[in-house]
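Ticket #4471: structure output looks truncated?

Reporter: J.K.
Steps to reproduce: submitted the chain below (87 residues) through the standard prediction queue, then opened the result file.
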Amino acid sequence: MFDSLKQLGDLRQLQKQAKEIQQQLVNEEIEVEENGVRVIVSGEQRIKKLLFEKENVSPLDVMKVINQALEKAQKLAAKKLMGKVGI
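Returned output as attached by the reporter:
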């Protein structure tokens, strides 16, 4: 029974840590610019701004820049999570 209570306490602690990390990620911004495309995403992987610095921008360039920014946001979230949990 005490093991169940300890596990419940551990689970609550993990939930608290996850919420703290999520709140930190809301305030983070990742910016990537390439080939006339600039994208800014939040640490929680939401696009905040998408700007075109030139007229004829290729859809492939747009996808490439967005994917780079999202990958950086994922790495940032993983880094924060590993640091918080102590992995």
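Triage note (M.O.): checked the attachment and the full token line is present. The mean pLDDT is 86.
Status: closed, working as intended.
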